[in-house]
Amino acid sequence: MAGTNHILPTSRGARNTGGLYVGHFLKVITHQWVDERGVQKLAPYSVRQAEFETMDAHRRAALIRLTNKL
Fold this sequence. Notes:
elongated; mainly alpha
């Protein structure tokens, strides 16, 4: 009648994890806020990194934040 979860890992999975729990069905969403001082400090590095990784949309987004007031 009472006990722990009965959905347990197989194929040696128990070496790394326990049984199934409600957290396996939840999506974790993170959020970050940077004020204007943070933007002025971080955006130039973001532009440089995005250029190096050829991520043009990220580069443009950092440039917009750098040149426009939030």
